[in-house]
Amino acid sequence: MKNKVLMGLAAITMVAFLSSCGKVPQEKVDATNAAIAAAQTAEAAVYVPVEFAAVQDSMKAINAAIEVQNSKLFKKFGPITIKLDETLAAANKVAADAAVKKEEVKKEVEGLMTGIKAVLEENTGLMKKAPRGKEGAAVLEQIKTETATIEASVVEAQAMYDKGAYMDALNKVKAANDRAVGINTELKEAIAKVRR
Amino acid sequence: MRANRRDLLLFSAIAVSIPLIVILLIRFTPVPPAEEVEFAMEAISRAEKDRADTYSKRLYTEAKAYYDSAMANWQMQNTRFIYFRDYERVLMFATMSIEKAELAAESSISSTSSFEVRVKQKIDTLNELVSKINKLFTTYPLTPETRNRISNGKMLLKEAEIIYRKGQYLQANMKITDSEYLLTNSYENATSNLKDYFKSYSVWKNWVTKTINDSRKNRNYSIIIDKFSRKCIVYQNGNKKFEFTAELGKNWVGDKRVKGDKATPEGMYKVTKKIDGRSTKYYKALLIDYPNDEDKEKFKKEIVQGSLPTSAKIGNLIEIHGNGGKGIDWTDGCIALTDREMDSVFKYAKVGTPVTIVGSMVEFENIVNR
After folding, report:
1. A17 with B74: Cβ contact below 8 A
2. ipTM exceeding cut-off 0.90 for this assembly
3. For the whole model, what pTM was predicted?
4. pLDDT at B360 over 80
């Protein structure tokens, strides 16, 4: 009887020993994947691409590490759980940083939009003050055409802004602003020359 | 006592055999290619940093696909009983992923740098074209459509420059392609239009040669106006004495045809009157004999041919005068100089001084290629 008990204990010990040592922390894996997906939705790849790539790399490493443990007889997910916590926090930070950066770009676009409208308005005033000889002349025609192109660009940038594509809007409005400022300088120089 | 010894023996046998079995179990567990998979992941990450996802897309996609296959295979093997697992294919996919990722990174680096150079070259070339267009056509009357296309081309070029500075060469190149099409096309159209303007060049050249030769032969002063270059050149005994910037009529392209067309005439004229003081509102003026017989003949011919209405009148009172220096073409057909320059011209010119007005003293090809 005593022998049987001992044998049984030994078998239980062995089974427990062999099947021991943890499971994949699936809840944490899911939570981290969800946080990365949220960061992607927050356009982290556009606004904080380097940081977002680092988080993605980190998750890839975790997936590989999970498989390493799954390949073992005795699994140990403790360090992976810690890494998952870190990656989850990093993903959340990246999402937050992306939102902040997006807001900054949005504000920059808004600022440039306001600025360009002011420059275009000033240009309209300057065109009235421009030398009479400019009326109907090629130079004035060119300025008018360029102003129309700038205005069209501003409309396009506004449409991009409305769609939330702030980075594209920023590129467009920056180019338009450069051109508007260029015309402003040209007009001021022409007026100054006539006054001399 | 004997039974106790037997139990002890049995217990000892179990105690020794368990670790032994465990050691044997571990010893014969298949080992996954974790290191290779890690290398593959790092190689893909490096390729991404080298922008292989943009500049070496095919190789990069292949590397990623092999990596995903390695991971999927690994996961699949891990679902099998531990001693039946086979990681050969995992290793194969991981190795191929490494190879492709390294190739992708290498190819991306080389194509990025050459692409960057190419995009920069294109930007520089187009900026040169824009300068050329500005130089040749700012004051040249182009069609609204051409002006519009040039303007759009310039805007796209500006956008391309901004995107290029952010290191997004592929997107910059797309903008450049559109800009290049608009600018090149417009430039070619405008140049062909300008070529028409130069069709009288051989006549202008003869007038200029004759004017300079006469100045040399008669040892006197003569004035040549080059409309395209906006120059007023004073010759003394056939040699250039002064060169000033001239401002012309608002519609300076082509010959003057009719009164009020605000065009500056082309032809060989003479000063008929020197005007200063209160007799002119333009500081000082040299009246020329426009229209001369040739102009009158040409005007009559146009009336007869019907290219001008019978009510049309030929213009007159074309002068070289002061009040210039505005930097634009503003006169009704006269040639304007600054008051200071007018003083010099006025000083040397007298009644009878030849004034030759030409479309250009420089050949079309030289103007386009200078």
Report:
1. no
2. no
3. 0.69
4. yes
